[in-house]
Amino acid sequence: MDPYIRDALLLLSLFFFFFFSAVVVADEEEARALIEFKKGISSDPSGRVFGSWNQPGAGSAVCGSWYGVACDAAGGVVAVDLARLGLVGDLKFSTLAPLARLQNLSLAGNALTGRLVPALGGVSSLRRLDLSANQFYGPIPGRITELWGLTYLNLSWNNLSQGFPAGIRNLQQLRVLDLRSNGLWGDIGTLLSELRNIDYVDLSSNDFTGNLLVDAENLTGLGNTVKYLNLSNNKLSGGFFSNDAIPAFKNLESLDVSNNQLSGELPSFDSVFSLRVFRAVANKLHGSVPGALLASTLHLSELDFSGNGFTGNVRDITSTSLKFLNLSSNMLSGLLPSSIGVCISVDFSNNNISGGLSVMQSWEPTLAIIDLSSNSLSGNYPEASQLQNLTSIRLRNNSLVGSLPSTLGNYPELSIIDLSLNRLSGPVLPGLFTSLTLISLNLSGNQFSGIIPLQSSHSTESLVLPSYSHLESLDLSNNLLIGPLPPEIGNMQRLKLLILRNNTLSGELPSELSKLGTLEILDLSMNHFRGRIPDMPQSGLNVFNVSYNDLSGTIPETLQRFPSTAFYPGNNLLVSPNGMTSGSNGEGGDSHHHMKYSVRIASIVGSIGAVMLILFALMALYVIRTQELCGKNRFRDQATGMEVKLGRFGRRKIFKSSKDTPATNSMSFSNDHLLTSATRSVAAHKELLTEAVECGYSDHRTESTVNNVLQNHPATCTTGERSSPGSPLGSSPHLIDLGVSEQSVMLDVYSPDRLAGELFFLDNSLIFTAEELSRAPAEVLGRSSHGTSYKATLDSGHILTVKWLRVGLVKIKKEFAKEAKRIGTIKHPNIIPWRAYYWGPREQERLIISDYVNGDSLALYLYESTPRRYSRLSVSQRLKIAIDVARSLYYLHNEKGLAHGSLKPTNILLTGPDLTARLTDYSLHRLTTQGGTAEHILNLGALGYRAPELQSASKPFPSFKADVYAFGVILMELLTRRSAGDIISGQTGAVDLTDWVQMCNREGRGTDCFDRDITGLEECPRVMDELLAVSLRCILPVNERPNIRTVFQDLCAITM
């Protein structure tokens, strides 16, 4: 053999030997790295990882045998895909560093946790990284911007925090960036300016701030390529993209900026020809809707501007591509457009559109969903027979009149009809009950008359229901219907809701009701039904009411679980199994029962009154003496500069009083409002005792004792008037002015020392230091059961409200921080948001910080005594306040999953010339211990706002339904201008507010309880009656009480 050939073969052999040896070593090293990575997985429900990722033998490969692992031709690991396996564990990403050829890492859809360490940025071969839908936390490591080859990055649905690291412009190959549903923050304009060559960007549901007024030249890197941009559910504010910047988005197809605080007018949008979807729900945008968005020049298919402040007319829609249009909850006016193009769904609800519905006859037959509820529409319902694709029609809360056209019952696809709260009349269309597609029918609150048109021996036409009706919800309440309830009702086998209350229906209840096995709500109250109540299915029925009828016999066993209010008043001959008969529910029995009850109450009240008079005299002397001692020991000679030392801080600070010795007055705090001495009730005596105990520190205490009191209870005792728990001072941002000669003392409280704890910001739009907060001059606003509130002015002039929480009230730091951050995400125009919280080194240093809002509490407007600073609230103002509060509760309950927990007039501020209601002191129970929560609920009970179910609970905790109860009480206060804790003398004895209102309503004299200042107004009877009905529903037993969504809708349906 030629020696040259022999040498070449030898060299080639050596090459292959070392090459394959290196491959084997690399394979083993990568296998060991994956084994280390697997150690972080604690649970593998499918067993696919634990069952295949085993320690390999020498030289063996992981490819083909290890689940989710893929390799290249040389045997190197290029992909690890463990998505959606239900894995649990705390991963160490640093173990993946040896995977030098890894291009795809997907762990999406598991329950994995851990921090994203900088070592992840060292896997420079990565092209695709998907860690979505896990529980990873901490900041995004800065080294992630070193993954220059990355094309897909999905970190959505985790618990990541802080901002996106600088240098994202280095990721020139990145095409998809999905960071939604984390806790990331930073300036949105800066981040958008950094993005380059990207197609898909989703930053929704984070805490990004800033505005969208980004210069056009800074958007070119993003605008040239981006097709999908989602910035919804952040904290954006200020202006929208300008007219100059919009043309930069040359390929934009979908834009979503919903649920922010963006304001101003929109640009023209006449050059974004690629735009298909545009959503800007729940912002503060105003002006007119850009005409180009509704015209044929663009190819838009979906436009949702609901929940803004757009004005003007709704233009004719000439677009040939727009399918879904939602302009609801704005301030649009004028007439309905004569053309809606080829829209499938149109929602103009909750505006001020007027005129008739005749234009519907010219609308295209493509239309399937129409919602024109809560406008000012009038006239008749038109034929509109061309709308053969109609599936849903909602015209609730307008002023429509006349009878319904027969075509309404002939639409072949119609499944939802809501024509409630209009003035429609005539018979109910029989065709509505023979439809094979109708699921929900609501004709309540109209003037329909005649019988329910099912088959009946009294009707001239025989209508047979289909053997399998799809109807699930039927509401014909508050009409003028007569006759019996036909037995054919039993054919509606899928019925879940049946409400026929407040008609003139009569006859016996058909036994076929027992066939309705899916029924959940049945209300037949306020009719003239007689005879026995048939057995009802026991399983799903949650709400049942047959009160105010003429039923007799015994309540069936299947219905005995419902409260007595489900059967009485009315039904005098109906016997309950526990012995309650008509004698205790009819008029005579009721009167006799109340007479005995009144005698008993009178005896008790008389005895208590005698004792209270004695105690009051003694306590009055004690309070006077205590106040004198408080003044002498604490604030004497302050006008001449005497200093008060606070024991723990070792340096002196001054409490400046605006008046040396305030004049005495004849007023005390009771049940959240001021009462003159002539109108004090037993509750007022109780409140006075509470005040005396809280302020009654003995003058024989040493200075160190006084210092300790001030240390633990800042500004607890002062000269002049101060807040008692639950008084209007407790939440109002202003102390109450007691008149010319009765000035309240304003304390300039200079913080006693430098705050040495931690200040955590929940809103980065305003930054200040703990030291700056320490030296901020402050005024005491008041006290509540949660703590003391101050008005503090920073060096910059910005004014804050600082709530100093009571000692021993709050949870441990970790739980406190978690709940505070959750509450800190609340942002709603009717709720005052939190800015920060402070956690100090001592137990008494727990602060909640929010913006100071210039306004006064609802309590002041309702109960301030003469001389008055406030004009009486009109009917329309009271209705608006009720709607504002209900709207904010709806947001808390449904958007944030949080109960308010302390709803009362002192925690409702009325701001601005239009008296916009804004909630304060919300969800504080989330920060407190069980003991602190129970104590607060006990205080709410004393004030009259505690739901009955909380009284009997072993561990009471605020709930959504408890909020609804408190809201119902507030509605009664708005109607009556009486306090929830007032003891009212009536014909049947002394009762509280809720019992009194219920009693007046039962006796048919509901108007007797209305505020006399407004009972003479023309709009009073209808509006006040409807408000009264809502308030009574709110205080029903918990299993009958509506949720806040229903209450809010009912209030919005009330028109002036």
From TrEMBL:
GO cellular component: a single term: plasma membrane
Membrane topology, from the record: Single-pass membrane protein
Recorded superkingdom: Eukaryota
MF terms from GO for this chain are: ATP binding; protein kinase activity
Source organism of the structure: Musa acuminata subsp. malaccensis (Wild banana)
Protein kinase domain boundaries = 775-1056
Record-level GO BP terms: anatomical structure morphogenesis; plant organ development; sucrose mediated signaling
Protein name per the record: (wild Malaysian banana) hypothetical protein
Q: Which residues form the signal peptide?
A: 1-26
User: Where, by residue number, does the polypeptide cross the bilayer?
Assistant: 601-624
Compartment annotation: Membrane
The answer on whether this UniProt entry bears the keyword Transmembrane reads yes
Keyword vocabulary terms for this entry: ATP-binding, Leucine-rich repeat, Membrane, Nucleotide-binding, Phosphoprotein, Receptor, Repeat, Signal, Transmembrane, Transmembrane helix
